[in-house]
């Protein structure tokens, strides 16, 4: 199982990071050890002093595919959920400066916690799916899939040119603006529409 994460898929997030708006999707990977086992606490890692949340819609692939065209990409998933692409921003900044890969900043253990369940897509409008993240009860990120630069189906088309998608693979589709720091003691809650899917304490 692999975790594919899209970077800079929302214009306002690219702007807040002072990053250019991509002309083609940009992606990186997290290992399967990035998943936080259910009911495990999330511990603030000791190698960073600037841990950021990035709340993202997550698609779970349910069929093996390669060179999938966007037109047929919706046949390769039927559920969508919510995840946090935790990022050690201080380490990421150093990696970027040196032109190094990002894995230490993005792929560490438990850097991809997810909601406790996924929602069937058949009852949802994926072209305008609203989601939000609350930190300590206040909304810090409020996204809508309509603001994605590249749609879910376009992302699947792009990624599957390079690597075979397999059952159970997860696609983190990028974060909207409003990313920020968490501290020990913070409580994060994630919602698709009004439905709460994610709840996490930083220990
Ligand atoms: Mg992200």
* Distinct small molecules bound, one entry per kind: magnesium ion
Span from first to last CA? 27 Å
Taken together, the total number of domains comes to 1
Helix-strand sequence: EHEEEEEHHEEEHEEEE
Annotated CATH homologous superfamily: Fumarylacetoacetase-like, C-terminal domain
Task: Write up this protein.
This protein has four helices and 13 strands. The model has no long low-confidence stretch (mean pLDDT 96). A six-stranded mixed beta sheet has the order 2-1-10-4-5-7, with helices on one face. The protein has one domain: Fumarylacetoacetase-like, C-terminal domain (Fumarylacetoacetate hydrolase, domain 2). It has helices at 11-16, 89-98, 103-106, 152-162; strands at 3-7, 26-30, 51-53, 55-61, 77-84, 87-88, 119-120, 130-135, 138-144, 170-172, 180-181, 187-192, 195-201. The relative contact order is 0.28. It is globular and about 45 Å long. It is α+β, with helices and mostly antiparallel strands and 203 residues long. Residues 5, 54, 56, 85, 174-175 line the site of magnesium ion (MG).
């Amino acid at each position: 199982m692999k975790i594919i994460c899209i970077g800079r898929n929302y214009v306002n997030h690219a702007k807040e990071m002072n990053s250019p708006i991509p002309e083609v999707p940009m992606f990186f990977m997290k290992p399967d050890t990035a998943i936080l086992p259910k009911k495990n606490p999330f511990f603030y890692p000791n190698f960073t002093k600037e841990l950021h949340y990035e709340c993202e819609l997550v698609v779970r692939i349910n069929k093996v595919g390669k060179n999938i065209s966007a037109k047929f990409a919706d046949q390769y998933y039927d559920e969508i959920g919510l995840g946090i692409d935790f990022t050690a921003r201080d380490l990421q900044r150093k990696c970027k400066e040196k032109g190094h890969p990002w894995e230490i900043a993005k792929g560490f253990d438990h850097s991809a916690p997810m909601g406790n369940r996924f929602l069937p897509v058949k009852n949802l409008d994926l072209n305008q799916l609203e989601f939000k993240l609350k930190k300590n009860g206040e909304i810090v990120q409020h996204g809508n899939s309509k603001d994605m630069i590249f749609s879910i189906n376009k992302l699947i088309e792009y990624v599957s040119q390079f690597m075979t998608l397999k059952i159970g693979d997860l696609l983190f589709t990028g974060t909207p603006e409003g990313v920020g720091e968490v501290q020990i003691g913070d409580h994060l809650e994630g919602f698709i529409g009004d439905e709460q899917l994610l709840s996490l304490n930083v220990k």
